[in-house]
Amino acid sequence: xxxxxxxxxxxxxxxxxxxxAHGFVRNLVAWGGGAGGPLSGVRPWAPDYCTAGWQPMSHxxxxxxxxxxEPVLDAIAQxxxxxxxx
Length: 86
What we know:
By secondary structure, the protein is an alpha+beta fold. It has one domain (about 15-85). The protein is built from two helices and two strands. It has helices spanning about 20-30, 75-85, and strands at about 60-65, 65-70. Strands 1-2 form a two-stranded antiparallel ribbon. Helix 1 (about 20-30) packs parallel to helix 2.
């Protein structure tokens, strides 16, 4: 999203990019998704937030009137598999 927003700051090891978002979500879920982990759920930004102002924070790409899930959503399943030791 355009400045000024505090969440526009990259974290060490997680650039502001599709790859950075994927790595962050995967590692977050792996850290907190294991048995007894502190994370009870993840709610990714949904297609209903694909409007012009919020679209950059959505995990969906919009083409015309169709929203398509971005690869970062696969990171949730990958993080759970990592937490389970798969």
